[in-house]
Amino acid sequence: MGYVDREKEYMSLKGFKSLVADLKALKYSGRIELCFYNEPLEIKKLNEYLQVIKSELRGCTVMIESNGVYIKDAKFVIDLFESGLNQLKINIYSDGSEKDIERKGKWMMKLADYCFEAAEKLGLSLGSKDMYKSTKGIIDIVDKRFFMMEIDGEQFSRVNCSLFSEEFGDKNKKTRNKKYNFVENRAGFLNDKFENTEMVLKEPMKETCTLVFRRIHILHNGDVALCCNDFKADVLLGNVFETSIEEIWNSDLLNMYRLRLFNKNRNNKMCSECNVGSGFYVHLLKGVTFGDDLDKEILNIKYLTP
Ligand code: SF4
Q1: Using only C-alpha atoms, what is the Rg of the chain?
Q2: Distance 16 CA to ligand 1 centre (A)
Q3: Alpha helices, H only, the chain
Q4: pTM of the predicted model, to two decimals?
């Protein structure tokens, strides 16, 4: 579902277990998000996948983003959290029309009821119930009891239910990068929709990007993509069923991207058309180096393509 049609394909439980074993060997204790422009709640045996993480990677926290379509009752949500989920974020988009806002708003409140009922039954630590308005409705529930301490803990320490409103546009414009527009044209994949408009970058932005320093993005078939916007792995960094995650994480190709992005050089495959901002935790980035001479050469490559 989404802008691009993709086949419904899943990582096998066997493959998932081998991936988790790889992470366990690395003593990984960070965050795992079971979503990548897909609908994770569609997987019938999702609870089994969650249980594998819960039993093998005890220090990790697990998050799912969903459109909520498959949530039929509170029990569904309870089962997820009992299987090991720590955060469930449901995003519901409205086209902004009165009719759609009314319809989706009702549905959203129903989902919110399920989530709040589940949270109450499980005794989750809920945080505040912020209500604010946007054209994107969000229900965000977090099990703080087992949630790892994020650097910016606030970001994940809430149960949140936002409603729809046209105010969203104005509110968001203030926080987005005005110079490069406020619509995120991620990796340029809206170029065909915004042809001949200012949404399509004329030249690469001169900004860093933290994604390649913070995350690894794995598709259902084990392919590792450059970032969460590279959902077809056009920049293929390796495959976790053939090469260890550690090797891929430290690969020359990924380090070349890091070196160039750290130096605000986005003239790379995928990045050159991307208007996503720098991302979280820029102040924590540490540059990578291949040695002074090689660094210069890599930074001088006109357009980096794998
Ligand atoms: S700049 Fe590159 S790495 Fe960062 S989000 Fe865009 S395409 Fe991905």
Answers
A1: 20
A2: 26
A3: 13-25, 46-56, 74-83, 98-122, 167-175, 211-214, 245-249, 252-262, 292-300
A4: 0.84
